[in-house]
Every structure is written in C-alpha cells, then in structure tokens.
Amino acid sequence: DFSAAAITSFSESTAGLITSAVGSIASSVPIFVISVFVMIAASAYLSKDYDDIYKFLKSRINGQTFCKISYFKTQMVSSLMGMLKGYGVIMLITFSELLVGLWVLKREYALIAAAVTAILDILPVLGSGTVLIPWAILAFLTGDKTLAFGLLVLYIIITAVRNVVEPKILGSRVGLPPIIMLISAFLGLKFFGASGIFLLPVAVLAAKVIIEGKKNNYEGNCNKNSKRKAIKRISIIKPKRK
C-alpha cells in the first residue's frame, strides 16, 4: 500500500511539474524567437561595421580611458574563456564518473544517461541529483534495492568530487584562489538565487581585473594588446590591394 501510494503521489507531482513547465515554455517561445533574431541581426551588423565602430569610439574617448577599457576587455575575455574551459573539464569528469558507475551497475544506455546527467549537473540548482535521486527512489519502490543503493552512492561520489575539484579547477583557470571562488559561488546562490552561482564569481573576477590593472601599467599593456590584435587581424583578414 505504501509503495502504491508513493508511486501515485510521485506520478501526480511529476505530471503537474511537466504541465507547468510545458505551459511556461510555450508562453516564452515568442519572446525567445524574437531575442534570437535580434541577437543574430545585431551580431551581423556589429561584425560588419566593427572597424568603423572601433575607430569612432577611440576618437571619442581619451587615450588613457580607452586603454583601460581595452585592457579590461582583453583580460575579462581571457578569464571567462578559462572559466568556460574549467566548467568543460568538470563536466567531463562528471561524465566519466557516471559512465563508469552506470557500467558497473549494468545499466542499458549508460552512455546517453551519463551525457544527459552530466549536462544537467553543470546547470545551477538542477545537478546530477535531478536524475539520480528520483531514479534511486523509483528503483527502491520497484524492489531493485541494489540499483537504488548504487545510484545513491554514485550521487554522493559525484557531489563530493565536484565540491573538491570545482574550486581548484576554476581557481587555476581564472587566477583566483579556490576558496574565493567557492565563497563567491555560495554567496551568489544565497543572495541572488541560481543565477548568482555564475554572476557573483564573474563580478569578483571583474574586480580582480580592475585591481590588477591599477597595479600594472595600463598604457603598456594596452599597447602590447593592440599590437597582438593587429597582427592577428592581418593574418585573418587580408587587406584589399588597389
């Protein structure tokens, strides 16, 4: 009786969540389509007129301010790319753990299940528990206690490894101590919700770039970055010959 009641309650809750999610997605589709169209059009126009926009802004902003903006942009792009690579490494580690664990538990479609769970694990709030915990509960209610226990152990291992590895990987990629990344992610979740896990570390990273820029010679770094950029652009875009 308890198993039947639990399964019924779980099914009703899941159905309600799916219905609510589908309605929310359906109502946001038009806005999403318009946003994507505007983003693509704006990217095309900015790419086409990049040199003109660059020259216009440079002529309207004094040299020192423009140098600071250029330095900030270069350092932030480099740090954010490092952060994205760090999250990619974390996702690969989680995927490997899931694949090995599901293979040991002799689950079919282990590769697909590991890939989907690893993607969900990198997203805020959701995590691998979104898949593994309901799966373990369902396995327990259906009598497969070995699978349920194995999935719970796998979830604990993934969570523990990520909590240890994530601050170190991101800290080494963006040049911040792991404890700073961990605290900023926790405070972001605490005060700003799911988006704060990403936004507050980015804000801390921006503050770090600004502080380092003040310590260093803005103008010297700006000149070096400008030379690097010019060489890169010449190698990619061939100038027209008259």
What would you report as the Rg, rounded to the nearest angstrom?
24 Å
Major sheet size, sense and barrel closure: none
Average pLDDT: 76
Structural class: mainly alpha
Unreliable spans are: 225-239
Question: What share of residues is helical?
Answer: over 70%
Total number of strands: 0
Distance between the termini: 86 Å
Bulk shape: elongated
Strand content: under 5%
Order of helices and strands: HHHHHHHHH
**Discrete helix count:** 9
Describe the structure.
With 242 residues, the chain is mostly helical. The protein has helices spanning 2-48, 50-60, 63-104, 110-122, 129-141, 145-174, 178-192, 196-215, 218-236. α7 crosses α8. It is elongated and about 75 Å long. The model is unreliable at 225-239 (pLDDT under 50).
Tags for this model:
single chain; 242 residues; 0% strand; elongated
Write a short abstract of this structure.
The chain is built from 9 helices and no strands. The protein is an all-alpha fold and 242 residues long.
Strand and helix map with partners:
Layout: H1 2-48, H2 50-60, H3 63-104, H4 110-122, H5 129-141, H6 145-174, H7 178-192, H8 196-215, H9 218-236
